[in-house]
Amino acid sequence: MSVRASCMVFVIAATAACSGAGQLDPLAPVPTRVNPDEISAPALRVEWTYQVMDEDNDVEVPTHAAAVGSRFVFVPYPDRVEALEAGRLVWSVQLRDPLVGQPLALGDGVALPAETGWFNVGPDGTPRGFLAQAGELHDALVADGAIIAIRADGIHRIDIVADGLTATWTAASPEARRASASVDGRTLYVTGDDNALRAYDLASGTPRWTSSRIEFAPLRPAVDQDPRSMTLYVIGVDGRVYGIRQRNGNRAWAGKDIGMRSVGSPIAVDDLVWAPGLDAAADAFTTGGGSHQFRIPANGRVYLDLATWRGWIIVSPQYGPWLLVRGPRQRFGPADPGVPRVVRIESDDDILLPAAVGPLGVALIDSGGSVRLLTEERGLADRD
Predict the structure, then answer these.
(1) Rounded Cα–Cα distance for residues 384 and 370 (Å)
(2) pLDDT confidence of residue 333
(3) What mean pLDDT comes out for the span 303-318?
(4) Which of 195, 118, 188 is nearest to 160 (CA)?
(5) Torsions phi, psi for 188 (to 5 deg)
(6) Which of 104, 129, 243, 347 has its CA at 20 to 30 Å from residue 368's CA atom?
(7) What is the percent of the chain with per-residue pLDDT over 90, rounded to a whole number?
(8) Environment class of residue 364 by beta-carbon count within 10 Å: exposed (0-12), middle (13-18) or buried (19+)?
(9) Closest residue by Cα to residue 302 from 328, 326, 320
(10) Secondary structure (DSSP) of 285-301
(11) With 50 as the cut, is the pLDDT of residue 30 above it?
């Protein structure tokens, strides 16, 4: 096995999509035009690119999305997980059991979800604990310094202690074949393909409420980054975006039906909710009432969850390029919602896995097996 790492040059093109003047028609695509002079150059770059070659000189392809920590980028392969620093292999840990989900960065270390349970690996590659768990893993995330695992047998909070891992609480999970979760403050929100939305106390696992008046899709709810917001945003099985009151699960508003269908989770940034579409586009709605503002075309259907990094929305279409999208600097009301900014990251290969975001930047993996880390462009001032 040989390793090939380099700082390669990729095309990063900046464009701007501009809505036309006049009243917006929620049932029609928002017209766009390319206007590269409307935005500044993107303050990001490809820091490094990493590949692993097998004995036949073929590139090995990761099995799941990477995890980005404060020091390492963790990349899972069929038989091991590698820790990369500055695009170079520092250590790897061999897997006794195959992974069933994406690794989770825990500071400089990593948590690995295996078929038999969770492994905690320290920053030097040494195993620090194991917690046996059974059942299919639907979703997992890090919140409040702990692992939140949504499994078929229940929702589990797993805390890191001196001698390894410990299960702090377990709550009943929805009887579903698919479930997703998000955290906002002290509350955990869970959706499932039973089409309900549930809220739990993050510290104790105590159920707070269940909302079933709307049929929700089993996608991660989008939580507002503004701590003053009291609304979360969920996609229904009808394709609409719904604003849901955090305190009781009641509907605050329903977005207009624009014919959108999503299988990827939305994200909320800067007063806009972005949703990935099977119609090869990313759509933006206002957080204040669900008004449709923008439609950004992509090269293929967007199956994967959206992610956010430093105000940019990361869109991973079925075929490259990746899109980094940001709301407009100025908005002038419904008739002229402003100019969204779009950055296209070209790739010779199709998109394989969702983008991973962490303190070091954004890790992207394509179908050719290349791992790239995007970071801030040094020396460029942010004009926002």
Answers:
(1) 32
(2) 59
(3) 88
(4) 118
(5) -105, 130
(6) 104
(7) 52
(8) buried
(9) 320
(10) EETTT--EEEEEE-SS-
(11) no
SS3 235: strand
User: Which DSSP symbol is given to 255?
Assistant: -
Cα Rg, the chain, nearest whole Å: 21
Both tokens of 262, joined, read 């999503």
Asked if the peptide bond before residue 321 counts as cis, ω within 30 degrees of 0, the response is yes
Among residues 21, 41, 58, the alpha carbon closest in space to that of 377 is found at: 41
Contact in structure between 170 and 205 (CB atoms under 8 Å):
yes
Angstrom distance (rounded) from CA 377 to CA 26:
37
Encoded amino acid at 230, one letter: M
Contact 208, 200 (CB under 8 A): yes
Q: What is the pLDDT of residue 1?
A: 56
Q: Are 137 and 97 in contact (CB under 8 A)?
A: no
Q: What is the pLDDT of residues 240-267, one digit of tens each?
A: 999 999 999 999 999 988 888 888 999 9
Name the phi and psi angles at 208, rounded to 5: -105, -45
Q: In degrees, to the nearest 5, what angle opens at C-alpha 105 toward C-alphas 101 and 109? A: 120
Residue appearing with tokens 């909070």: 157
Q: Which residues of 285-324 are buried (b: 16+ CB within 10 A; e: fewer)?
A: bbbeebbbbbbbebbebbbbbbbbbeebbbbbbeebbbbb
